[in-house]
Structure formats: C-alpha cells, structure tokens
Amino acid sequence: MRYEEWEPIYHEICDYFSFDPLEDDKAAHILSNLTNQDATQKLRTLINNQVVTVCGNAPTLENEINKISGIIIAADAASGVLIKNDITPDVIVTDLDGIDDYAVELNKNGTILVVHAHGDNISRINSWVLKFEGPLVLTTQGKPFGNVYNFGGFTDGDRAVFLAHAMQARKVNLVGFCLDDQDVTPMKKGKLLWARRLLKKLGYEC
Ligand SMILES: Nc1ncnc2c1ncn2[C@@H]1O[C@H](COP(=O)(O)OP(=O)(O)OP(=O)(O)O)[C@@H](O)[C@H]1O
Ligand SMILES: Nc1nc2c(c(=O)[nH]1)N=C(CO)CN2
Ligand SMILES: [Mg+2]
C-alpha cells in the first residue's frame, strides 16, 4: 500500500488508540540510528512470486501447523510456537514484544527480522536491536524514510500480510488468525479489530 493511501487510515488508528504520531516518528528515527542494515532486497527475492504462509498467534495456530507451506512468515510470538514444533520461520515480523533470545539465534542463521518501531516500544528497540547480527528490515507505521519502510498494516499479523503482498507473493495463506477472539484484553480486542478491518481491505475474512 502506498503511504498516501495508508496515511488517512493511520490517523484513524492514532485517534482510536490515542497514539501520538510524533512518538512513532521518534521511535523510527531511534531505530534507524541504531543500524544501517537494510535486507529489503533479500526479503523481496525470498518472497517474490512464491507461495507464502503468514502465521498469526491465535491459540488455533498449534492445530493448524499441518497447513503451513511455502515461505513461512511468523507474526511475533507465533515464531515461538513454530520453534516448539520444529519449524524455522524464514521471516519474523515483530515489534519486539513477542520474541525471546531464540530470535537472535535464528537471525544469525538467516531468518530475516522485520523490526517495527512505534511510540510504545522505544525501550525494546534500545535493548534488542544491537543484539541482532543477521538480516534486518526496519519498519514504521508513520512516514517512511531512509532504511525505514512502511508496507502498510498495523498489528504484527496484518503487517506481515501487507508485507507479503508488497513483496509480490504469488499466494498468501493465513494460519493462526482468529481476529474475533473474545478471550483477550480490551486493548488487544481493539488491535484485533483493526487487524480484521485492514485484512478485509486485502480480501481476507478472519
Ligand atoms: N487470536 C489472536 N490472538 C493474538 N494474536 C492474533 C490472534 N489472531 C491473529 N493474531 C495475530 O498474531 C499477531 C502476533 O501475535 P502476538 O501474540 O505476538 O501479538 P502481539 O505481538 O502482542 O501483538 P501486537 O504487538 O501486534 O499488539 C498479532 O499481531 C495478530 O495480528
Ligand atoms: N504507538 C503504538 N503503535 C503500535 C502499537 C502500540 O502499542 N503503540 N502496537 C502495535 C502492534 O499491535 C502496532 N503499533
Ligand atoms: Mg508484537
């Protein structure tokens, strides 16, 4: 999605959650200043024209492992579920609140980390990013610049789907997405509602 198309949606999201866009920009600049890494071309080569499975972290993921095929993109904590099931994600899309030290090891061995900056993860950016030795792609939900991209999307899960579309995947399958999950906090419910709205724009009903 082009930024011009994304921007009005982004402002609606900021109004909904009372997020401050200036804090998002501050986070994106902190991230960009920590590393000049840019594995976007590697990511594009990996995904272009391929079948991709994006794994969300709904409780159903564990029962849907057998549906995974092609290039595997894990949304944040879904990566831990995959690892427990002996599956190595090719890509992890994360705002750094759902991963653990295993992500540093995976990244060292080639898993691409797509690290998202926002106003509420600045401390996580500062504590995690310098530990990563492998390929990184940096993202923002605000205006992109330099080595910081915006492919559209909001939560780790729907952002992963927007990313796969932006990288021209041939087909994008979703597993572990249950966006009307009622067994979550009010904040999470709001985030899943937005994920659902955004994925609907790409033609997915989940
Ligand atoms: N029922 C569900 N519960 C949680 N996540 C879900 C669910 N269904 C789909 N997802 C997707 O899985 C992604 C990764 O889940 P995780 O539990 O790591 O969330 P998170 O990292 O705390 O979410 P975020 O940081 O995006 O707020 C979410 O961003 C969401 O898009
Ligand atoms: N400012 C801000 N932005 C976000 C947040 C968040 O908690 N705060 N969470 C996200 C993942 O769902 C994506 N973007
Ligand atoms: Mg997260």
Brief description of this entry?
This protein has 8 helices and 7 strands, in the order αααββαβαβαββαβα.
Structure description:
This protein is an alpha/beta fold and 206 residues long. The chain has one domain (3-201). 41% of the residues lie in helices and 16% in strands. It has helices at 3-17, 21-34, 40-47, 78-84, 102-108, 122-128, 156-166, 186-201, and strands at residues 51-55, 71-75, 91-94, 112-117, 136-140, 148-149, 171-175. Strands 6-5-4-3-2-1-7 form a seven-stranded parallel sheet, sandwiched between helices. Helix 4 (78-84) links the parallel strand 2 (71-75) and strand 3 (91-94). The protein binds adenosine-5'-triphosphate, 2-amino-6-hydroxymethyl-7,8-dihydro-3H-pteridin-4-one (PH2) and magnesium ion. Magnesium ion binds at residues 76, 94-95, 97-98, 156.
Number of helices: 8
Overall form: globular
Largest sheet: 7 strands, parallel
Q: What small molecules does this complex bind?
A: adenosine-5'-triphosphate, 2-amino-6-hydroxymethyl-7,8-dihydro-3H-pteridin-4-one, magnesium ion
Number of strands: 7
Query: Could you give the order of strands across the largest sheet?
Result: 6-5-4-3-2-1-7
Mean of the pLDDT scores? 97
Family: Belongs to the archaeal 6-HMPDK family.
Protein name: 6-hydroxymethyl-7,8-dihydropterin pyrophosphokinase
Cofactor: Mg(2+)
Organism: Methanospirillum stamsii
